[in-house]
Automatic annotation (TrEMBL):
Xref: InterPro entries: CFA/CMAS, CfaB-like, CMAS, DUF7884, SAM-dependent_MTases_sf
Domain DUF7884: 10-77
Family that this chain belongs to: Belongs to the CFA/CMAS family.
GO BP: any one term: methylation
Protein's recorded name: Cyclopropane-fatty-acyl-phospholipid synthase
GO molecular function, one term: methyltransferase activity
One Pfam family cited in the UniProt record for this chain: DUF7884
SUPFAM superfamilies with a match to the protein in the record: S-adenosyl-L-methionine-dependent methyltransferases
Source species: Pseudomonas segetis
Active site, renumbered: C358
Length: 394
């Protein structure tokens, strides 16, 4: 059966061992660190064009097994793809239509998996977004608290401020904004499981008078300018190109004149928002984030501006997210037995690939993460922001 291996694979020098269904083995390079156990013979013909969605899908579906450190597995898989197939990220971009039912189903698929599973590898506050490492030496717990405080400082939260948290998740930011900055927080999410746990933690911490959380679509937000500040973290990736303008208009309508809007989220590397290449974007779209789309920074600042918001500050946290994802992946990998008791086997396979793969992708610059701060101008065109932003980092 060794003769059935595509000849092109034999020329590669990757630390990869192929183990066939009949027990035979072939090393594609010296000192293999990764073993690909092929259980389905039909997969052999696909290895001559090993797109990451094909390789990842085969693992998720149990057609192959992977042996080795997950970080090595990702590097070898990318090396295999880069060596044998052209980068398809220049393909034409087709954007999807998003309605409330589609978005609610997609959010439920991703976030309603299991609160216990997420708690296994997230920090104690259950913050499922990029951490902030001021020196690079912080623990995950320290980095997530630093990120939440950074967001609040950029929003210049003051006691009594009415803060809208769009996509509030498990409520970590809402609780900290109320507890440490004295804000009155109104948070919304489309995940019933997130909302349940978030409300429980609000009650446990005695914050029920300051924090109200609801199951709501952003398109149903009040448009009467009742909020002093608006924050959206890890949310607009689910909005879709077709609805970006409406999303930004909803944020504009929710905040009062002179109020601040913070959008924290993943952005595309290319200006046309094309998917990550070599099939990685297709894998994420099929197995991880159905209907998710990443706009480029220029697109996002454009639609915010068109909605009437003035962009006043932009910061990239790409390498911070690479480190965050590495922490998450390592934590999951160290507790696979526990994780296997919490979620279906296929889901665990998806998340192992997803976390390690995204850590690699952010480190390589396949995508970015930007915090975009905007202000809704006062009637005279001005605003009350300080002349300098040095106080944010003091």
């Amino acid at each position: 059966m060794i003769q059935s291996i595509p000849p092109v694979l034999r020329s590669l020098q990757l630390p990869l061992r192929l183990k066939l269904w009949d027990g035979k083995e072939l090393d594609l390079g010296p000192q293999p660190r990764v073993t690909l156990v092929i259980k389905d013979p039909s997969l052999i013909t696909q290895l001559s064009e090993p797109r990451l969605d094909i390789l990842g899908g085969a693992y998720v579906e149990g057609r192959v097994e992977l042996e080795g450190q997950m970080s090595d597995i990702i590097k070898v898989g990318v090396g295999l793809s880069e060596a044998l197939i052209p980068d398809d990220s220049s393909a034409a971009v087709e954007h999807e239509l998003h309605d409330k039912a589609t978005d609610a189903a997609a959010i439920s698929y991703h976030y309603d998996l299991s609160n216990e599973f997420y708690a296994l590898w997230l920090d104690p506050e259950m913050v499922y977004s990029c951490g902030y490492f001021p020196t690079g030496d912080e623990s995950l717990e320290q980095a997530q608290l630093a990120k939440l405080r950074l967001l609040c400082r950029k929003l210049r939260l003051e006691p009594g401020d009415k803060l809208l948290d769009v996509g509030c998740g498990w409520g970590g930011l809402a609780r900290l904004a109320a507890r440490e900055f004295g804000a009155q927080v109104y948070g919304i999410t489309l995940s019933a499981e997130q909302l349940k746990l978030a409300r429980e933690r609000v009650a446990e911490q005695g914050l029920a008078q300051q924090v109200e959380l609801q199951l709501m679509d952003y398109r149903d937000l009040p448009q009467d300018g009742r909020f002093d500040k608006v924050v959206s973290v890890g949310m607009f990736e689910h909005v879709g190109y077709a609805n970006l303008a409406q999303y930004c208009q909803c944020l504009f309508g929710a905040v009062k004149p002179g109020g601040l809007v913070m959008n924290h989220g993943i952005t595309a590397r290319h200006t046309d928002g094309r998917a990550v290449g070599y099939g990685a974007g297709d894998f994420i779209g099929k197995y991880v984030f159905p209907h998710g789309e990443l706009p480029h920074l220029s697109t996002m600042t454009g639609v915010l501006s068109d909605a009437g918001l003035e962009v006043v500050d932009v910061e990239s946290l790409r390498l911070h997210y690479a480190r965050t994802l590495t922490f998450w992946s390592e934590r999951l990998e160290s507790q696979l037995d526990k994780a296997a008791s919490m979620v279906p086997e296929q889901a665990l396979r998806i998340w192992r690939l997803y976390l390690a793969g995204c850590a690699y992708g952010f480190a390589q610059g396949w995508m970015n993460l930007h915090q975009i701060l905007a202000v809704k101008p006062l009637p005279d065109g001005g605003h009350n922001l300080p002349w300098s932003r040095t106080d944010i980092y003091a």
